[in-house]
Design goal:
Blueprint: E1 3-7, H1 12-17, E2 22-23, E3 28-29, E4 43-47, H2 90-102, E5 135-137, E6 143-145, E7 148-149, E8 152-153, H3 160-165, E9 172-184, E10 188-189, E11 207-209, E12 221-229, E13 235-240, E14 248-249, E15 257-266, E16 276-279, E17 286-290, E18 301-303, E19 308-321, E20 328-334, E21 336-337, E22 342-343, E23 351-358, E24 361-373, E25 378-385, E26 389-401
Antiparallel strand pairs: 1-4, 2-3, 5-6, 7-8, 9-26, 10-25, 11-14, 11-16, 12-13, 12-15, 16-17, 18-25, 19-24, 19-26, 20-23, 20-25, 21-22
Length: about 400
């Protein structure tokens, strides 16, 4: 089949040179498809065969025009679809846009740019009530579901201290300290034994003296645990079996601070049969005390262990005076300078951190900003009044790795 080409002839003589087969008003037919020649101006001519594109009257490959309705086979395309920010033909860019639309378009917004539009969820069967699972991602990139209560999402914003109490916060633990003294007069420690508290000045072993039935086979406390610090402020503990009124000696000799004392096992009485004292070897100084009828020490004395910071958020106290118009001042002190952020001389150099005077009333002091004490700080609560008062104290907070 002949093809139509648009060709510019330089002159009529050159046309004869290529042996025009058939000359009409609008086209020429060349023999054997050797070349196409036209008139002296651009003209469509019919040619059989392939038209050469070299010569002094051709500048480039000439386009081929097909008549409407002719079946042709499309050859390869040089302009591939462009789907990135690159140079290319208009055709290639248009094909790239179509490709993106047919596949998917991912839009990435720079930091700080507001999101636009909406995001839809592709259900298994669109337009139905197929369930869609909603999950959150934790800090490790692991997904987890949302708990529900009666088909309603369960939402709980847990207070920080609740999380610590549930052991959800690593390096943190709930802290509490109790104190009780039924006869506070002048500068008394808030502990049942009363008097002025003296801190140990060196590591030592200690003696435990209890009631007659506070022993291995007695009705009182049969075994107790002493929680203590050595002189590096490391936390330790030791179990002791009381031997009644006769002194039982601890198996360790590195006790520097008494932190807590608690019953480990008890007899049929369920509590201490008598007062249990923790004393120095000479039995002249009392460092710890469990009052008769109880199972733990209630002594408002404590020391912050090594590697820890103590935060106090609550100071509960009450004073019941035995006479009218009498008061009792209750003071929380510590060997710590919060301005310099250092522990002061152990057991000696105290500063006041909270104080209140009461007359037959309870009081709870909440610290909106927690009191903070560093490792090695000794704390003590003392009471002073112009009469005799029964005083109880409760301190609450948490310990945190420093």
């Amino acid at each position: 089949m002949a093809e139509l080409y648009e060709i510019l002839l330089p002159n009529e003589d050159r046309a004869r040179e290529y042996q025009v087969k058939n000359w009409t008003e609008d086209k020429v037919l060349l023999p054997d498809g050797s070349v196409v020649l036209g008139l002296l101006y651009p003209q469509k001519v019919e040619v059989e065969g392939t038209v050469p594109v070299s010569g002094d009257f051709y500048q480039s490959t000439q386009p081929v025009s097909k008549a409407d309705g002719i079946d042709v086979v499309q050859g390869s395309l040089a302009d591939a679809a462009i789907v990135t920010d690159a140079n290319g033909t208009i055709s290639g860019k248009l094909r790239g846009i179509i490709k993106l639309l047919l596949d998917q378009i991912t839009v990435k917004l720079a930091a700080g740019v507001n999101l636009i539009g909406q995001v839809g969820i592709d259900q298994t069967t669109p337009g139905t009530t197929n369930a869609v699972a909603a999950k959150l991602i934790d800090e490790a990139g692991v997904s987890y579901g949302i708990q529900q209560v009666d088909n309603k999402p369960r939402v709980s914003v847990m207070p920080y201290l609740y999380d610590i109490a549930e052991k959800n916060v690593a390096g943190h633990e709930i802290w509490a300290k109790l104190g009780f003294n039924s006869a506070v007069t002048t500068s008394n420690i808030i502990s049942p034994q009363g008097g002025v508290y003296v801190f140990p000045v060196a590591e030592q072993h200690m003696h435990i003296i209890g009631g007659a039935e506070d022993k291995a086979d007695g009705t009182g406390i049969q075994e107790l645990t002493i929680y203590y610090l050595d002189d590096t402020y490391a936390q330790k503990s030791v179990d002791v079996v009381p031997t009644g009124a006769a002194a039982a000696e601890t198996s360790v000799s590195d006790i520097f601070r008494i932190q807590h004392i608690r019953a480990k096992t008890v007899g049929t009485g369920g509590v201490a049969a008598g007062n249990i004292s923790i004393k120095n070897h000479a039995e002249t100084i009392t460092y710890g005390f469990i009052e008769q009828g109880h199972t733990r020490q209630r002594q408002a004395v404590w020391t912050v262990p090594a590697g820890k910071n103590l935060y106090i958020v609550l100071f509960n106290t009450s004073a019941i005076n035995t006479a009218a118009n009498k008061y009792c001042t209750i003071t929380l002190m510590a060997t710590y300078d919060d301005k310099a952020d250092i522990a002061l001389s152990a057991g000696l150099f105290f500063m006041t951190y909270s104080e209140i005077s009461l007359e037959n009333t309870p009081m709870a002091i909440c610290f909106n900003v927690p009191l903070r004490f560093v490792a090695g700080t000794d704390l003590i609560v003392v009471g002073t009044g112009n009469g005799t008062a029964t005083v109880s104290v409760g301190l609450r907070g948490w310990l945190e790795d420093s």
